[in-house]
Amino acid sequence: MKIDQIRGQSFAMPAHRPAYPKPPFRFLRREYLIISYETDPEALAAIVPEPLRANSPVVHYEFIRMPDSTGFGDYTESGQVVSVIDPEGRKANYTHAMYLDDEGPIAAGREIWGFPKKLARPVLRIDGNDTLLGTLDYGTQRVATGTMGYKYETLDLEKERAALAGTPNYLLKIIPHVDGTARICELVRFFLRDVTVHGAWTGPGALDLLPHALAPVADLPVRRVIGAKHVLADLTLDIGEVAFDYLA
After folding, report:
1. Is 101 a member of any domain?
2. So what's the pLDDT on residue 16?
3. Average pLDDT value for the chain
4. pLDDT per residue as tens digits for the range 34-47
5. Is the residue at 13 inside a domain?
6. In the chain, how many domains are there?
7. Which residues of the chain have pLDDT under 70?
8. Catalytic residue flag (residue 229)
9. What pLDDT score was predicted for residue 72?
10. Which pLDDT score is estimated for 179?
11. How many CB atoms lie within 10 A of CB 13?
């Protein structure tokens, strides 16, 4: 390969056949189970990176099925999103942890935006006849179980669409240098675009998080579940932007 070819054609690893295509990525019939809970304020403050700040001790634990996503195929993920205030004073989301079962979105999520993704085995399905069940196994160990009464009460679709499309989302992107130091250390902001909500429901919810050395979701312990919702939507994961450069 010539130098000009490398400069002009390369965008991801490996150079001859990257693990994922270029963004943006479109998701159809993306299904969320989101259980919101109160946690320990001190534990939460310890993981929210400045210049973001925690505005309440609320964590959203998510199980997400993605049966049709451009470039990634069919996969499932699970993780924790924290309610924060961004430097512009807006209510925002900070993604603290994500676990999923597909190499392409793990590599793309980490390398492009800085999603904190690790390989694991999340599942979202109907259990019995009346329960939406989400589970997360890391290796052979169960680390998260979430349940919700199936479609108990309908939510306002426009309100849910506006929340998905209008809320800024933040990530802490860290890429190492060849000497093991940080080459990139940035706070990245992104939005979800072209959002259509096909259905949204709420119902009684419960969440159990178990300690694990390498999947420490229980480090933000459940003090009280405050809500649960089930959302079905189409959306586009758009390109991001650097909101703050820690190495500048």
Report:
1. yes
2. 86
3. 96
4. 999 999 999 999 99
5. no
6. 1
7. none
8. no
9. 94
10. 97
11. 12
Q: Among residues 73, 222, 207, which one has the least CA distance to residue 134?
A: 207
Could you tell me if residue 175 is inside a domain? yes
Q: Which two tokens stand for residue 2?
A: 């010539």
What gap in Å lies between CA 55 and CA 113, rounded to an integer? 24
Torsion from C-alpha of 72, 73, 76, 82, nearest 10 degrees: 40
Is residue 19 a contact partner of residue 196, using CB atoms and an 8 Å limit?
Answer: no
Quick one: residue 152, left, alpha or beta (phi over 0 = left, psi -120 to 50 = alpha)?
alpha
**E strands present in the chain:** 25-38, 53-69, 73-85, 91-100, 117-119, 121-127, 131-138, 141-149, 153-154, 169-176, 182-190, 192-202, 205-209, 224-237, 241-245
What is the Cα–Cα distance from 122 to 215, expressed in whole angstroms?
A: 12
What pairing do the DSSP bridges indicate for beta strands 192-202 and 169-176? unpaired
CATH of the domain at 227: 2.40.400.10
Range of the domain at 92: 21-245
CB 203 within 8 A of CB 152: yes
Flag whether 179 is in a domain: yes
Task: Supply the pLDDT for residue 55.
Answer: 87
The pair of structure tokens assigned to 192 is 């979800």
**Gyration radius of the chain over CA positions:** 18
Cβ 100 vs Cβ 55: under 8 Å: no
Which residue among 2, 91, 117, 229 is the active-site one? Answer: 117
> Which residues are CB-neighbours of 189 under 8 A, at least 6 positions away?
86, 168, 169, 170, 240, 241, 242, 243
> β-pairing, 121-127 with 131-138?
antiparallel
